[in-house]
Amino acid sequence: MVSSAQMGRFKWLFLLCLFSTLGFVSFSYLRRSPAELGSATYWASSIYNNLPRYEVRRFKGVLDTVDRHNTTTAPGEGRRTTSETSENDSKAKISTPSKELVKETVQRTTKQPHTVHITESGKSQSSNENQTVMDINNNKTDPNETLIVDTGKNRTETTPKPAESGTPPPPTVPPAQRDPKWFLSDDTYTKSKCPSAIRENPEKVPNGRKFIPDIPVLMWNEHINPEEYARLRQFHMCYGWKGIDYQDIKNCLRHLNTSAHRYMFPGWTPDHAGCIRCAVVGNGGILRGSGKGKEIDGHDFVWRVNAAMIEGFEEDVGTRTSFYFHDVNTMRNSQATGRVYGYRHPPQDEETVYANILSAPDMRDYFYYDAAMSWKPVKTGKDKSDTPPSQYGKKPANTKFRMLHPDFMRYLKYHWLNSSRGYGRFEDIYRPTTGAAMLLTALHTCDVTHAYGFITADHRQYSDHYYETDYRHAVVFYVNHDFQMEIELWDKLQKSGLMTLYRGNKTQPTQRYRYTRRYEN
């Protein structure tokens, strides 16, 4: 006779076998797709439809989701990468449910999967080899649409039908325009009849420099288009749009949409009578004690740059500011370094116009100008803020802004300051100083140019800046500029009669200059 203890053991053994059998049967159903279940019971299909969807990587035939209904992109932009698409679609994933692909738990959905045709390496599969693609966010998939699958890299991109593509291929840049010395043409400043203007005296241009009368100086809203974007994206920094998004440029340039943005001088026309006289004021220590303030203010327009400190130095540097030259980087650095001397922000006079040379190697200047003219905070980048930029005053009018054209900056580099530093190890950081860009812009737009506060051969006798209280802060030479070349150019332009240059009032050296391998940010 079987004892009660033995009956208990048989009961537990029976239950263990029963649960093992049920578990095996359930798993056999769960590892199949609904299409394979056929006449399976309702409870098995219900369990499958409510299973979590899985993110699977590094397996053959597994596809990342792409937006097949947004095959167009902004001109000049490439097709979205897999990572960008996944992020924008809330990390939606395409997966093939099978036994070996159950890895990581991600989003859940009760939406039924649907079937599309897949091709591997461009070859179509037979109709009985369909793969299941999960549809997230109500993306409707055309069953006739083709996907090209690189199963080795698990990267997928759509191949839209020709009739469905609304964006033409990026424009091809003509061979001649690939040359960095190819420029647009703008005859705006050729209309001046002043006898002292540089265009009336091209023979006075120093040897080794090339003067182009119709070089474009300013940039405005009509300069952003797919063809120009394709051409200028070849060049970096202030010389082009390399690494800068098409839409970010467009968002900025849309503000520069009036006739005022096509000509430097407010209240004047290109075919003006008489001569436009400009005082171009640098920040060199040579101006300290000069007594040139009244003379400077007597010009039609007064140009200043970077830490343009006026209060307390009116007798030497004047009081007016018609143009303030900068890029966002030099402007903010000037605020930081000049604070100890009392400098707070650029001049904000009623007549002040802000001219940007766009020298930052990123989108910084475009973000900042767009925010300033829209009177909104900078949303992204190094200057991200909660309030609108304050350097230009409160709600400045868009007519108070100018931007130099990248062609003009490239023209200055190759035809006026073609330094050896622009090639080789310093090629990616070299550019003319902000002051040099300002002075050469004045030379190409003003009829009469008088320069004050610029570096001269006897710079050792002066401090770096006129607002410094002693001479211990000597002139610093940065490796991303060629100061020696600028010294020589100013001297040649003065001797040729194309401009006048204030040379100071000292005769004995008091301080040697200091050279550094740092570069000016």
From TrEMBL:
It catalyses: a beta-D-galactosyl-(1->3)-N-acetyl-alpha-D-galactosaminyl derivative + CMP-N-acetyl-beta-neuraminate = a beta-D-galactosyl-(1->3)-[N-acetyl-alpha-neuraminyl-(2->6)]-N-acetyl-alpha-D-galactosaminyl derivative + CMP + H(+); a 3-O-[N-acetyl-alpha-D-galactosaminyl]-L-threonyl-[protein] + CMP-N-acetyl-beta-neuraminate = a 3-O-[N-acetyl-alpha-neuraminosyl-(2->6)-N-acetyl-alpha-D-galactosaminyl]-L-threonyl-[protein] + CMP + H(+); a 3-O-[N-acetyl-alpha-neuraminyl-(2->3)-beta-D-galactosyl-(1->3)-N-acetyl-alpha-D-galactosaminyl]-L-threonyl-[protein] + CMP-N-acetyl-beta-neuraminate = a 3-O-{alpha-Neu5Ac-(2->3)-beta-D-Gal-(1->3)-[alpha-Neu5Ac-(2->6)]-alpha-D-GalNAc}-L-threonyl-[protein] + CMP + H(+). Residues 67-181, 378-397 are annotated as: Disordered. Its EC number is 2.4.3.3. Pathway: Protein modification; protein glycosylation. The keyword Lipid metabolism does not apply. It comes from the Eukaryota. The keyword Metal-binding does not apply. GO terms for cellular component: Golgi membrane. The chain crosses the membrane at residues 12-30. InterPro entries: Glyco_trans_29, GT29-like_sf. Residues 77-92 have a biased composition (Basic and acidic residues). It is a single-pass type II membrane protein. Residues 121-141 have a biased composition (Polar residues). It is an enzyme of class 2 (transferase). GO terms for molecular function: alpha-N-acetylgalactosaminide alpha-2,6-sialyltransferase activity. Gene3D superfamilies: Glycosyl transferase family 29. Belongs to the glycosyltransferase 29 family. It holds the Pfam family Glyco_transf_29. It is found in: Golgi apparatus membrane. This is alpha-N-acetylgalactosaminide alpha-2,6-sialyltransferase.
